[in-house]
């Protein structure tokens, strides 16, 4: 039996819709894989009651099938489902890394990304690499049809998870089908700024690059108190604030010295609109790790 820890992730980061992602130091899923005649799944942990154990309906079942690696798979959820923190991606990433090792399939980490994305498709309906890429490879990732580029960035982050559920499918339904040329130009500029900030480990540049006038405003209405939380985080020292993935988690970049105050401000702002939340003071971390 192999044990794999795969981290939560934050995708999009504002300007990088369906492209950018970062691995978070915490929380994480723990997945154990053991060879078997057929794939069976056992799920425990946060939100486990909402996750199907049928291999045809679970992300890790699709990964096992893609790798032709039947196994008994135990998933200990540390990343809440429907949180915007790549919950399904963490499980899929851990399974891909673990089964690849268990069956000696020989795939590189980058080659495992599209395989894990097949598991993501079970939940979201589409195979996207923006969450599975950082969960497998770690760091800040840029995932395109041409492959994945990774940057080993070091940026302090605060992720505030409210007691709200936003499904990936619902969040995708509100994404605008078109954008004005001016918005396209702005987005390109912000995405370039964010990428430069990751290379330089500069929270100010990363924060500026988290701006977005296309997707984030459309999704903000799905999160009670989003604008208040964003304003409170900025007032407490955040350099940038946006929705993590499909939401409802709100993620902020900041300097390490401001992490605690930013986290407290975000929780207090959610509390003022009657929404309970929890905060992860985290940073960009490593990808899936085999123990």
Automatic annotation (TrEMBL):
Q: Which reaction does it catalyse?
A: L-homoserine + ATP = O-phospho-L-homoserine + ADP + H(+)
> GO terms for biological process?
threonine biosynthetic process
Span of domain GHMP kinase C-terminal: 197-266
Q: Which Pfam families match?
A: GHMP_kinases_C (PF08544), GHMP_kinases_N (PF00288)
Q: In which pathway does it act?
A: Amino-acid biosynthesis; L-threonine biosynthesis; L-threonine from L-aspartate: step 4/5
Question: GO cellular component annotations, sorted alphabetically?
Answer: cytoplasm
* Domain GHMP kinase N-terminal positions: 59-139
From what superkingdom does this record's organism come? Archaea
Q: Name one GO molecular function term.
A: homoserine kinase activity
Q: What does this protein do?
A: Catalyzes the ATP-dependent phosphorylation of L-homoserine to L-homoserine phosphate.
By what name is this protein known?
Homoserine kinase
Q: Please name the source species.
A: Halorientalis brevis
What lineage is this protein's organism placed in? Archaea, Methanobacteriati, Methanobacteriota, Stenosarchaea group, Halobacteria
């Amino acid at each position: 039996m192999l044990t794999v820890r795969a981290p939560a992730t934050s995708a999009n980061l504002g300007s990088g819709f369906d492209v950018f992602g970062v691995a978070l130091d915490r929380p994480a899923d723990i997945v154990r894989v053991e060879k078997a005649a057929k794939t069976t799944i056992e799920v425990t942990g946060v939100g486990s009651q909402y996750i199907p154990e049928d291999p045809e309906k679970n992300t890790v079942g699709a990964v096992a099938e893609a790798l032709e690696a039947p196994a008994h798979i135990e998933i200990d959820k540390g990343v809440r489902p429907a949180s915007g923190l790549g919950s399904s991606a963490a499980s899929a990433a851990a399974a891909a890394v673990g089964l690849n090792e268990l069956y000696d399939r020989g795939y590189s980490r980058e080659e495992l990304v599209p395989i894990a994305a097949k598991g993501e498709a079970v939940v979201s309906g589409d195979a996207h690499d923006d969450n599975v890429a950082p969960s497998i490879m770690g760091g800040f990732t840029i995932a395109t049809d041409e492959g994945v580029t990774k940057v080993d960035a070091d940026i302090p982050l605060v992720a505030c998870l409210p007691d709200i559920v936003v499904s990936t499918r619902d969040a995708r339904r509100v994404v605008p089908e078109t954008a004005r040329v001016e918005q396209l130009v702005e987005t390109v500029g912000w995405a370039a700024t964010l990428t430069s900030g990751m290379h330089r480990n500069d929270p100010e540049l990363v924060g500026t690059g988290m701006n977005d006038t296309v997707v984030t405003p459309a999704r903000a209405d799905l999160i009670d108190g989003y604008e208040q939380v964003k304003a409170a985080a900025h007032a407490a020292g955040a350099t940038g604030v946006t929705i993590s993935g499909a939401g409802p988690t709100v993620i902020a970049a900041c300097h390490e010295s401001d992490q605690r105050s930013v986290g407290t401000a975000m929780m207090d702002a959610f509390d003022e609109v009657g929404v309970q939340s929890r905060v992860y003071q985290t940073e960009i971390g490593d990808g899936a790790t085999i123990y």
